[in-house]
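User: If only I could read backbone structure tokens as easily as an amino acid sequence. Underneath my words sits a plain record pairing an amino acid chain with its backbone structure tokens. This is the protein in question:
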Amino acid sequence: MFWGRERELGRLHAELDAVVRSGQGRMLALRGRRQSGKSRLLAEFIERAGVPYLFTTAVKNAPSDVQLQTVADDLHTARTPLPARDTAFAANPVSWADLFARLPVAFDGQPAVVVLDEFPWAAETDDTLEGTLQAAWDRTFEQLPVLWVVVGSDMAMMERLTEHDRPLYGRAREMVVTPLSPAEVAAAVGDRDAVDVIDVYLATGGYPRLVSAAAGHRDATTFVHAQLSDDTSPLMVTGQRVLSSEFRDAASARAVLEAIGSVEVGHATFSSAVRLLGGDEKAAGAAVARALEPLQAKRLVAIDTPVGAGPKSKLRRYRIVDPHLRFYFRFCQPELAHVEQGRPDLARARFDRDYGSWRGRAVEPVVHAAVDRLAAEGDVRFDDVEQVGSWWDRSNDHEFDLVAADRAGKVSWVGSVKWRSGRPMSRGDLGALAEARASVPGAQQARLLAVCPAGVEVGAGFDGVLVAGDIVGAFA
């Protein structure tokens, strides 16, 4: 099954349409974390486009001759082959330059799509590949009706690919593929309560393979229980695969990521990450500081500060960006040994015991993103909102789940997130939230927002309410 991705498919079809209209080549550098659905998206696009294509995937750690053999195999197995493929490739190419020289013959003047998936793997084994592609592009391909897509899962490497000092600078347009949104997850799992959709999203992170597995169960809890019963299930191995692709040689960065992800409830601070890392405190502190830069570069860790605080604020909290990795470090990795030993009941019991409290904080970034999207889409309630996040003071005596402000720092909303279905928010919750007007700078006139699947009691007095369906719908 293929769900959602209308925006991404629209972008790809628009690029191909421009190629066909102009007769000129275009190149995309498409990146996204492993398991985010990049290859499936491109396969769907090619199937719908119906034009001749070459779709080839590089082989990790393989020398150039193996990479080129893979390309030759893929040339001859395409459902809609390049028109003059047999003439151009009666013999296999002997180098990347040879491949690029023969492809124009194979196009035979017809519009075509070329996808080089996992391009960084091929470039790692031939440091001339980028330059060779650039020369072929400038000399030939830019003047032909071909859409080139170079694809990679190494986020940092793919970003560098188009920087000013690299061969493809100014040639490749960038495109990012993220996992499925909560609204796309809702479409995938069918007729489900919005709370359950968010539960599926928090467990799967929107990774299509995991969402597909979740769609076969009646609810999120049943899905998680089934997955925790098998150490080879998608839920147990996807996080490991993502980490393996990101950290081939960076054991210390991975250890810091695990420390951040293992926080019981909420987000880690620098000191809590140091403490969880264990060992000598000074050495652990140096390891955390050293690891944060690559973790941020790979878009794995976000450093949050209170809304309105400057970027150099010392009130920092560290959060794993990927929802599935947050879930993985909390409920999968720590229980892997139990599952392997035939005690999945222990893993399921921990999930049943701790998930509710963990979810209450894990859902906050999703709520923040939803409010930000509502503001961007012109929801009149949030028409002046440009910053959305949380707020806390140095002592943590005052902490508020959601603060929304304009660019100048004037706070228009402060909100409380109570992610529960059985009990609506009350006037007592309103009173606790109203303290923000005296605590948060710029919030004297702020409106009070309740975020709760159960809604609010009649007469509770909130200025605005968001339920689970509003959060899911914000991503539509």
About this structure: The chain has a mean pLDDT of 91.
